[in-house]
Write the structure tokens for this entry.
Amino acid sequence: MIDRIHRVMIRGKVYEKDQLRVGFVLLLPTMIALLLLFVIPAVQVITYSFTNFSLTSGQKAFNGLANYRYIFTDTKFVKALGNTFTFALLKLVFDTTIALALALMLDSRIPFKRLLRSVYFAPVVVPVVASSLIWIWFFDPGIGPFNQILMSFGLPKLQWLYHEDTALISIILFSIWKGMGYNMVLFLAGLQNIPDSYVEAAKVDGATSLQVLLRIKLPLLRPIISFVIMIGIINSFKVFAEINVMTPKGGPLYSTALMVVYIYEQAFSNGKMGRACAASLLLFIIILLLTTLQHKMGTKKTIELD
Amino acid sequence: MGKRKLHGYNWVATFILVAGSALMVFPFVWMVLSSFKTAADVYTYPPRWIPSTWKFSNYVKVFEMIPFLRYYFNSIYTSVMQTAIQIVLSITAAYALTRLDYPGKSYLIGLIRSTMFVPLVVTLIPLYLLVSGVGLIDTYAGIILPQVFSAFTIFLLMAFFSTVPKDLSDSAKLDGCGYYRIMMYVIIPNSLSAISTATLFSFLGHWKSYTWPLIITNKASYRTLPIGLKYLVQESSSEYQVMMAASVMAILPVLIVFSLSEKQLVRSITLTGLKS
């Protein structure tokens, strides 16, 4: 048989000509999309952040670090930054621990297992805005079910979304209800991947349930916990829809304004594109630092275990 | 995992899970019941669970207050188009990234992976300026095109495509199939369940998409459902029963799709989670 395959050599490696051609054609749309939707905008965010780019004045001139100086002295930005960290931290802690507890319980011998899993997972797939509408009513200080429940126990009413002390917490409550099912499903899959024999062997050696949990299940779940935390960080820093719907304009005394709200406001209410880009870039840097840090810590602990 | 324990169910866990699940479904139950209430029912104390009379008028009112059908159509149209383009793009990319060999492949995979760490909000402003610069504000193309790339979908499909046995594509090649035909007749038919999962996933994602359609539409006639609902909140001034009727109509199709395809959804979430 004659070898009809045409080959070429590129930098010391042999490739098949057909594969080069087909690969290029098939990847072309993706490469164009990557370039237009990702690479170019990413470069522009950086360059615009050093300009006074404004939609209202039409200016777009280099102004050095002026945007960064502005936002770091802007009380609104500082507040938004603080809010974002509070939100991310609380959501991460509650989401992860509740989801883990639920997954551990679902992994034990219980009736209606699949139905229960579906119920906890359902809010994840429901559109954010539609479910926000329900919760706006829940939080209504006058006729909302939450205050009616508090009243029936003789407790004082709360202002929920309408007071600076409770607004962010209210949104975190919503957000936990909405999102923890996702983590739960991941944890559950991780638990079901743990071979029965590990647990059985530990039990035979006289390990208690708590020891099985701490010494076997949690260490084996570490990669998934790590993944859940990483996704959790990225997701908390991009939260926008529920905040924009439940508390327009950053809520009472800007108490629910997260960084995305600040960016949105600078860009689309004030037309200050340069400033908004500087804030976007900072947001990205924070995400990058946190995920890298988390990744480093995650891998270190795994090595220590071995 | 305790599955082989001889004694019965773990009743403590069952009790906690059942109690918790009541909290989880409470918002949905409340939504459905309230969508049939009158304004008087909404404002009574102690709260009335079951409507005193079942009224469809709230549903009618949604259509009177906002162009709900138009929003619905916009959401369906843009979500279907985004999903279709995204799936074709992702299939071709995933095939080329798993089954073909050429220089620079690992760099491309790295670039695609890195997009997962860059949420839309980071590139939002240049993207908005780009789209408005080419005159696509208030157009379907402006809503659809910037949202067709998804690293998640590509990686999901790559995970499945790489499991199709190499023998299958090798024997197709011996029979004279080129690489396009191997994709069409070997890889795709052997990954249909994965492709349908990815399709579902991306449809649900686009159906609830908020930030991009919000900034790219000024005219009411191009608003999608989530954006329309936001404006309903502003205009309905605490007519909660009307808001609930609108929510029911927005959530119902999603819950139906979810109940039919839950197994697939859960499987693909866990797959991407376990692989990374």
Notes: The first helix of chain B runs from residue 11 to 34. Chain B touches chain A through 102 residues (CB under 8 Å). The CA atoms of residues 127 and 146 of chain B lie 8 Å apart.
